[in-house]
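re: ur question from yesterday

yeah so i grabbed the chain u mentioned. its 106 aa long if i counted rite. heres the sequnce exactly as i have it in my notes:
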Amino acid sequence: STSHERTSTTYEPKVQYTYMVNGTTYQGHRIGFGVTVSGPREEAEQALKSYPVGAACTVYYGPKNPAVSVLERKVVNKGWTLFFTILLLGIGAGALIYTVHLLGYI
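ran it thru and got these structure tokens back, copy pasting raw so excuse formatting
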């Protein structure tokens, strides 16, 4: 028996930035909220183009917890977000139909 294993390399964009809030210096590493994105090298390089080394950038941080920060306020991994949104909507719709059926409306 011969085993054919496929291997692939994925790349994850890595950033590190320093910012100051009310005189306190913080370090961050997140581009955005959500699941970490990894994929082909081109995608990682494209994600990093907006953040050249040494360049100034806008940092968004939590007003109650400034140590939590991101460079982009959007969710990074749209695929997973869409999947879970559809899943939750499906569960909600199923629960509604089940409840209506139990009450005898259908």
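noticed a couple things. The two ends are 55 Å apart (CA to CA). also The chain has two helices and four strands.
anyway ttyl
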